[in-house]
């Protein structure tokens, strides 16, 4: 059974109609009583605000993005459910924010660090906001969240802290079955494939080429080669040794950069896979950063996870000032890993087994023309969209 506050959130018009009917039946005495109730409620609200004044904090969040239309909330739209819809409702139900803040999020100075998109998960998302620091805040928020969305930590921050603007870098991981690296001509293309050290070294050699500042206009949409915002700085990128889980051999690619554009990470990985499998020449890597338009395949969004966000400048300035904590979350590493093993990795594996999104995407690689001109690419993109049975869910690598 829903709580009274949940009923108010879910059925506001019905509650209003009931109150109206009651007041008509009970007459002037009820009006007077309602007046007293209103004053008493206002007094209780003021007492709550005095007892627990709002403070600027950050919340460390982990979530499985499957079934959600991304992180960012679209206030006034209930068509697509997002992670923030769940969080905001939990904040209201736990009395961390008043109900009117749910509709006007700027009243609590809400800001997310990264805008993960449809289906994309996070192990280290950080949001900044002003809330009432009630007793056992994290526990009470989690009591109103589904198990696949968790607040793992809370820390006080400076009054002007903004999780997006204060973020120096973001680290994403991409979990994929290792058979994606099997050469198209002379290696098995199914789950029996095992990644050799030689192939892993080749993958890492290609991934290392992304490090530094490059023009990534070919790795996103609606940006030309002369758009300065297409230049992005990549600090680290590598593929870790493989491991087995759920009957699949998996590998995790990690990339750290200042910020990422829509689809950028998925296309970076897609291009390396095309080279390793023998569909494209290694020279395409350098060519993709030039002015020429290059046809680059976009890997599925299923395996993409926001691992960590970095606040190095903030930590140097405020982390040891005696009033604020460093935002490195080292004390939460155990909880983060446990969440990934329980909610993120199983979802990726099970969805791949059931829907074969990666296998279906691999079948589209021969359709791409890796020497395509800008005119040819529009035709090729149309062919891929029509031929692939891929749950292409518009990325997740946007900040």
CATH class of the largest domain: Alpha Beta
β-strand amount: 15-25%
What is the fourth-level CATH superfamily of the largest domain? Pseudouridine synthase I, catalytic domain, C-terminal subdomain
Q: Tell me, what's the shape? A: globular
Number of strands: 10
Mean pLDDT: 84
Describe the largest sheet.
10 strands, mixed
Helix content: 25-40%
Named at the architecture level, the CATH assignment of the largest domain is 2-Layer Sandwich
Number of domains: 3
Q: Structural class of the secondary elements?
A: alpha+beta
Number of helices: 13
Q: Quaternary state, please?
A: single chain
Poorly predicted sequence stretches spanning 5 or more consecutive residues: 10-34, 374-397
Distance between the termini: 38 Å
What fold name stands as the CATH topology of the largest domain? Answer: Alpha-Beta Plaits
Q: Provide the succession of SSEs.
A: HHHEHHEEHEEHEEEEHHEHHHH
Radius of gyration: 25 Å
Family: Belongs to the tRNA pseudouridine synthase TruA family.
Binding site for substrate: 172
Active site: 117 (nucleophile)
GO molecular function, one term: tRNA pseudouridine(38-40) synthase activity
């Amino acid at each position: 059974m829903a709580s009274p506050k949940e009923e108010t959130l879910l059925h506001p018009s019905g509650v209003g109609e009931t109150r109206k009917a009651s007041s008509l039946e009970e007459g002037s005495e009820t009006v007077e009583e309602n007046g007293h109730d209103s004053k008493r409620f206002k007094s209780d609200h003021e007492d709550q605000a005095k007892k627990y004044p709002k403070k600027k904090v950050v919340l460390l969040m982990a979530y499985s993005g499957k079934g959600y239309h991304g992180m960012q909330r679209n206030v006034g739209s209930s068509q697509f459910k997002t992670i923030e819809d769940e969080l905001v409702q939990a904040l209201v139900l736990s009395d961390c924010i008043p109900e009117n803040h749910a509709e006007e999020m700027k009243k609590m100075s809400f800001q997310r660090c990264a805008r993960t998109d449809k289906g994309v998960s996070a192990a280290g998302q950080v949001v900044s906001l002003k809330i009432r620091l009630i007793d056992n805040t994290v526990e009470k928020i989690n009591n109103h969240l589904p198990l696949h969305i968790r607040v793992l930590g809370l820390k006080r921050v400076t009054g002007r802290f903004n999780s997006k603007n204060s973020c120096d870098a973001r680290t994403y991981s991409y979990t994929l079955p290792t058979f994606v690296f099997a050469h198209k001509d002379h290696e098995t293309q199914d789950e029996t494939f095992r990644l050799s050290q030689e192939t892993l070294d080749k993958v890492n050699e290609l991934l290392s080429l992304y490090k530094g500042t490059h023009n990534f206009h070919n790795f996103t949409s609606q940006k030309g080669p002369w758009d300065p915002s297409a230049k992005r700085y990549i600090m680290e990128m590598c593929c870790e040794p493989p491991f087995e889980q759920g009957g699949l051999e998996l590998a995790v690619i990690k990339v750290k950069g200042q910020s990422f554009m829509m689809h950028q990470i998925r296309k970076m990985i897609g291009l390396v896979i095309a080279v390793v499998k023998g569909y494209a020449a290694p020279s395409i890597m350098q060519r993709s950063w030039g002015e020429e338009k290059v046809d680059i395949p976009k890997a599925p969004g299923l395996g993409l996870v926001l691992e960590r966000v970095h606040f190095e400048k903030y930590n140097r300035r405020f982390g040891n000032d005696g009033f604020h904590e460093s935002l490195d979350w080292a004390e939460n590493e155990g909880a983060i890993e446990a969440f990934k093993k329980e909610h993120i990795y199983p979802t990726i594996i099970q969805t791949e087994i059931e829907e074969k999104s990666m296998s279906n995407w691999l079948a589209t690689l021969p359709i791409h023309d890796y020497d395509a001109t800008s005119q040819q690419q529009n035709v090729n993109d149309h062919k891929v969209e029509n031929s692939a049975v891929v749950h292409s869910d518009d990325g997740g690598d946007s900040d």
